[in-house]
Amino acid sequence: MIAGVYLVALAVLAVFGAHRLALTLRAARARRGEPAAAAAPAALADDACPVVTVQLPLWNEAAVAGRLLDAVGALDWPRARLEVQVLDDSTDETAAICAAGVARLRAAGIDAHHLRRADRAGFKAGALEAGRRVARGELLLVLDADFVPPPELLRRAAPPLADPSVAMVQARWEHLDADASALTRAQALLLDGHFGVEQAARAAAGRIFNFNGTAGVWRAAAIADAGGWQADTLTEDLDLSYRAALRGWRFVYLRDLAAPAELPATMAAFKSQQFRWAKGAVECARKLLPAVARSRLPWRSRLEGALHLTQNAAYPALLVAMLAAAPVLVTGAVPAWLHGTTAALAALSLGAYAWVSARGAARGVRGAALAVARVPLLGAVTAGIALHQTRAVMEGALGRRSPFVRTPKDGGARRARRYRVARGRGWLAELALAAYLAAVATLAVARGEPAAAVMLAVFAIGCGWVAIATALDA
Question: Does domain 50-298 have CATH number 3.90.550.10?
Fold first, then answer.
């Protein structure tokens, strides 16, 4: 029985692993097929620039709000065709910082508005929808609080929207603090993979890829046509993306346009972010998979959409595989060669993923080699949050609702302690899982299965790291 459960878990992981490898190969082919020096789009004359509304959804972001508003004021766009909406639901001094920032923008000739709501109904989606209804822009640029947009962002992102079939243009995320800690290095690997492989591959193949919630420009008419921002999932960006795509709208991904942002500084903040993303994706799967299946999209696009929306199912599968490892090893119900083959294929697949994602993020050959060297870090953090993410997947699948918990930012000062998310007691279970995996790794050594031992040791280290770092996030 336990062997069957273990093999099913490995089969699920193999499906998503094969999908990741297919995306990696597609992204690599797309990158090789790019011209050595892609021609820049023709610059728009100032009088041909559409009106753009920059939307800044904020809630208690005192550490970064001023920096964001200053960066928005430096955007290269005709002032007469630029509107800024500070969608501020804050309950602390952020409101005063925003008011001062809006005053600076208005003094610089920018049509800036400080919009306050009586409550946070709908959270981020509610704020964006409220702003959209009064925005005067034909295009809407959305920026989260921790982003520092480059001045040329609009000049480079707006031209593709001259095509009336294009709904959204997404820029790649860059990282302001990638080397601040082992945690931020791991996050940089994960995000580089998302943008350098997943987004790049889906865009190159003409499949649905999603708006990432920030650093993207939307056509206002496309949002309205898709039904507006909706708050019935925790990932309003993914939800809107699929609803718009099912209406026939197209998206453009600009790999070479980077928008720098902060990575979460603490383990508790990182886990909160990952929980929201995973649970929201499953909620979107519940909401949208039937429509994707019934759509007239090509079967490959429907299959890609299904794998995209359900990819977080890999976390429960990984957790089951880790828990079943001990009885499987003790009973010898699964041949040793399967453990070795699984470990080798996982290492090769993740190595290719890391290499291609780093190249897609313009890291160069040295950066790509460094990313490959950090694959064990990627495996460790993935295993470390598997228990936490499994809860997110289960809650999303069962339809259990929860509030939108934003990821706290500290502007690099590491001082925003009162904005830190609650650590909870889950770290105790993660610590117990780490001890269990360490024991199973020792058992694998005793049974002469070094590949399984190494893989289990990496998982044990990851679970221990996540647990201890969470516990220290007081």
Answer: yes
